[in-house]
């Protein structure tokens, strides 16, 4: 098997990723530093973690929430904190607080939004998940953002349709 045949999806993505430094033989795939002995792709766990936090959706989503300190970037809303057992006098009060928290958590969760829409690439290793393309939003802000995208897309489609209909059809010249 040749080296070109052994190219993985990760290697193909690193080759086109704008965040990865140029890769030379024996260099880290992320930062370009020399690889320490017994390492083949990343010079450290930090470089490997940075790659996955910018390309794999589940890791990128968690990293975006942590970066935004678990608050909505638009309105500043934060979900309620989970109750701690030591803060309650009895276990029954703690369990009641947990039930109330679980009920509220369903509607006040945080969502991570792609600023530039990724349209179905969530299950793929992709540059659409770069942290600079992600923001943490509460459900009302996310709904507003998504509705604005839909309105913009519909307006763009209507404009393009009207523009194409207003152009005169090309005349066909018949030769004798």
Structure report:
The chain has 176 residues and is mainly alpha-helical. It has a domain at 9-79 and 110-161. Helix content is 41%, strand content 5%. It has a two-stranded antiparallel sheet with strand order 1-2. Helix 2 crosses helix 3. The mean pLDDT is 85.
Low-confidence stretches: none
Taking Cα atoms only, what radius of gyration do you get, to the nearest Å? 25 Å
Question: Distance between termini?
Answer: 61 Å
> How many individual β-strands?
2
Instruction: Output the structural class.
Output: mainly alpha
State the helix count.
Answer: 5
**Whole-number mean pLDDT:** 85
Shape: flat
Written as H for each helix and E for each strand, in order along the chain, the element string is HHHHEEH
Strand order of the largest sheet: 1-2
Fraction of residues in helix: 40-55%
Q: Please indicate the percent range of residues in DSSP E strands (runs of 2 or more).
A: under 5%
What is the makeup of the main sheet? 2 strands, antiparallel
């Amino acid at each position: 098997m040749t080296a070109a045949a052994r190219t993985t999806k990760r290697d193909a993505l690193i080759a086109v990723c704008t965040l990865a430094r140029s890769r030379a033989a024996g260099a880290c795939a992320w930062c370009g530093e020399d690889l320490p002995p017994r390492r083949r792709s990343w010079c450290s766990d930090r470089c490997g973690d940075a790659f996955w936090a910018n390309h794999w959706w589940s890791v990128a989503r968690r990293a975006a929430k942590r970066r935004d300190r678990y608050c909505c970037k638009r309105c500043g809303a934060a979900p309620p904190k989970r109750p701690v057992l030591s803060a309650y006098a009895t276990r029954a009060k703690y369990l009641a607080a947990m039930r109330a928290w679980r009920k509220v958590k369903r509607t006040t969760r945080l969502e991570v939004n792609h600023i530039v829409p990724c349209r179905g690439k969530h299950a793929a290793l992709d540059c659409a998940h770069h942290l600079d393309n992600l923001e943490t939003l509460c459900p009302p802000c996310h709904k507003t953002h998504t509705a604005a995208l839909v309105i913009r897309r519909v307006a763009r489609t209507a404009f393009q349709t009207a523009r194409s209909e207003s152009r005169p059809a090309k005349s066909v010249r018949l030769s004798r």
